[in-house]
Amino acid sequence: MIWQLDFLFLILVLICALAAINIKDLLSAVIILGAFSFFMCLLWAEMGAVDVAFTEAAVATSVCTILFVGAIIKTTRRSKD
Amino acid sequence: MKVIILIFVILSGGLLIYGTMDMPAWGDPQSPANSYVSPRYIEEAYAKTETPNIVSAVLADYRGYDTMGETTVIFTAALVCAFLLRKNSDEDEDKS
Amino acid sequence: MLTTVYENLIVQTVCRIMVPFIQIYALYVIAHGHYSPGGGFQGGVILTASLALIFLAFGQGAVTRRINRRLAVILASAGVFIYAGIGLLCLLLGGNFLDYAQLAKILGVTIPRARSLGILGVEVGVGLAVMAAMYSIILDIAGSPAKPETKSRPISENKP
Amino acid sequence: MLDFIIGKFNFWFYVILMAVGLFAMLAKRNLVKKLIGMNIFQTAIILFYVSIGVKKGNVHVPIIVGGHGHEGELIQAADYLNPLPHVLMLTAIVVSIATTGVALAIIIMIYRRYNTLNEDEIIEIRQKQLEAEV
Prior knowledge:
The structure holds four protein chains of four kinds.
Chain A (H helix, E strand, L loop, with lengths): L2 H20 L3 H22 L2 H25 L7
Chain B lengths: L1 H18 L12 H4 L2 H12 L4 H9 L1 H22 L4 H6 L1
Chain D lengths: L1 H26 L3 H22 L31 H31 L4 H15 L1
Helix pairs in contact in D: 1-2, 2-3
């Protein structure tokens, strides 16, 4: 509920989102998506939603990244855009 | 094509930003979302369920149907993944 | 592929030390969900993360030897069944579906305490279902599809 | 003016984040990129819902202070955050992981059949197949 901290985390989240959709290497994009989820978790902890932050830290940064990496290694990591 | 999509996205984003002008300010304790159902949950939850974590109490007790459906959704997702990817013919095996 | 294992002593040793602590922490998160942030989802996902750590460090055979795919599906349906079973038990005791106050008749405690215990039982079911379902999804997406199931051996013979 | 900006800039950021996700879903031709865009879109909406429940000032997180031994004390609703958006979004996050898993399974099946992840190439191959059948 400190708006300066909120502003900082929102800027970081936006940078991570823009980087994740613009990088051509899919594996790098997925790792940046993990960083995006982590900053989102910090943002929720700052807003006081401790349960949501815990869930995001447990679910999105670990299991989601594992799923994406497994799928990318099975398919291909090159992308044209 | 990309330019059309960009214009569409910017237009819809601008419309949504115009919509936020009427919303209550961030963190307003008197906003409608904070003043209807949730005060009852906060005041009653500990006395009626002996659970200090209000989120747990609401998740599993007051809104138990919701959580049961959600557990079923996860179970269904696991079944769908198994049906799609588990080996059932020999030709898939060679290409993977 | 993720399924080819490179024998790495440091990774395997750290994994062997870390996994029991991660699982204890997951059980703590499930059981202590009334008093602190946490609950069925988070604990189940942390249990899955410990299994995924074994999967990454020791390969697919080491983890399917402990919980094979058929057992994972059975555990997931058992979790959903625990949840719905508690609801049906309340229905049989004369209340509404998922009305935990009726559990006070068979548990012999006050009504708020019975609702607290009902929440605990439901969280255990959710944790079991989430753990097994996520484990099954990870095994299907990241594991190799063609590998035949290894026969389960007694735990004392397990050498990862 | 400053109060207005402080009160509203969160919502503007959520809208920008949602627009980024929507653009990735519509304009990118790679299927995994589309899925990443979908994740960003979902997270922006969840962020919007959670931020509705925020209360300014000296409030606690939604866990009753003290736990046992405080039965007699009156609990004021103004002292705690709004727990309802947290509950709803907790389920939304876990369901989003399930949908991601199903989508990745479908992507793996598509790659096995067409040997590419680019949408244009998939459509091209599919049209050639249809013409060959006719």
